[in-house]
Amino acid sequence: MRERIKEKLGPKIKEWHEHSARRIYFTVDKKDIFETVRFIFRELGMRFSTASGSDTPDSFEILYHFSNDSSGEFYSVRVFIEDKANPEIDSITPLFPGAEWIEREIWEMLGIKFKGHPNLKRLLLADEWPEGEYPLRHKNES
Amino acid sequence: MSHKVIVPIGPYHPLQEEPEFFQLYVEGEKVVDIDIIIGYNHRGIEKLAEAKHFDQVPYLVERICGICSSSHPYAYVLAVEDLFGGEENIVPERALYIRTIIDELQRIHSHLLWLGLAGHFIGYNTVWMWAWRYREPVLDMFEMVTGNRNNYAMFKVGGVRRDIRDEDIPALKKTLDELVPALSMFKGAVMDDPVIQARLKGVGILTKQQAIDWCVVGPTARASGLNMDVRRDEPYGVFDRVDWNVIVEKDGDIFAKTIIRILEMYESVGIIRQCLEKLPKGEIDADIKDIPAGEGIGRVEAPRGECFHYIKSDGTNRPIRHKIRAPSYMNVASDKVAAVGGTISDATITLAAVDPCYCCTERVAVIRKSDNQKIMNGWDLIKLSHEKTNKIKEELLHGRP
Lengths: 142, 401
Hints:
Chain A is of the alpha/beta class. Helices cover 21% and strands 33% of the residues of chain A. In chain B, α5 packs antiparallel against α12.
């Protein structure tokens, strides 16, 4: 599986890190995320586990986690979104509906906009929560 | 004559966790669309975890869910132990066995809870009473081992907090022995009952392709023919050292989901027996002091499916990011396809079949879009479900509709 990913994505992989036999992290450019996810989900048949966004000092970071249930390997695809003022990335929900909720959650918690998401509205936050306030951003902390 | 009617289900009931709000769009009896609105119980736990030190987080995540309250702390400690290269690198043998026992006891009590409620929803209140009656001794086993019937506080990074006393083991084994005939009774009651078969077969189907597209996990996925189980695929605890089977069905309907949960309880009993048999002597805690920097992922097979925790550490005593994904997050979303096309009388059991929490079905209002508004209470919806079961019974008994 590793070889197939490396072969198919080739230079699109910016960094490849194997934390342990079952934990593989690799970084792709944010413009390549749709194609990367399509390949892993549709062609390699891995299960999308979830995605996790985080706020780092220089950028926003999203990890898309995929489980290869037949081998137990867990692949995490990392993207950096450098434009912190106006963070945007392609939505993967058009590929499969299982990604809809998690993208909505990342959008409302971190303010990352998913281009092409069919239903980008609040999932967890209350209706009264102020617009433009994103609770998982670190702006008010050191 | 077709009215388009919206049936809202939810969101609150004080006795149950996990409020959800289902809005069913119905034409006549048929459900044509469904809106799922969640977030009523969002407590910001991921944010809270950033303000706790590593040793406090298990107590926090244990309170995410009262039913699978050991899955979250287990997945969390696995994520932190992933920073050390994995559970097997640091956790003592005896603790691995104890962790496995807790994990499986929890599966039995959770599946019995589900079985009882599912029985209640389709009008089998006897199943409800019996299932919950046999859940009690399982909770007693928890009390014997952990001191608590719920929220066990057993997990810590590097081990477990309490040991299993040798003098308790005979009583634990005896309780397990007594549980097996009860499981066989349930198995017979469900598999041999033509009414339950007629009521649950072909209802609320999630096809294999839908299961893949909606990324469902656990019994919901296994009922649709997806052969996956974190316990086998990425073994934690001692699941790779005991004999057990992953139960997979093909039909994707509620009957398949029921069968899977019943058969899984036998496997759990077998796993616990083997663990008690093999339980080695020794330490139960590695006494970890410092958490290294890095990223860790932990996942366990909770009763409802894969429970996922992600930890980012910068080498201080607090996580800088903690992502949690509970199994119902994936499964509940799939109701969007499983319930659509069915009838309102099947909606209760279909929504319940993924084993979310049931508060949702306890309070219901039926609102007609036209002027004649009608408010029903939750009992009415369950009654609709009971009526359908009774109709099937009549048909089978007397051969008439």
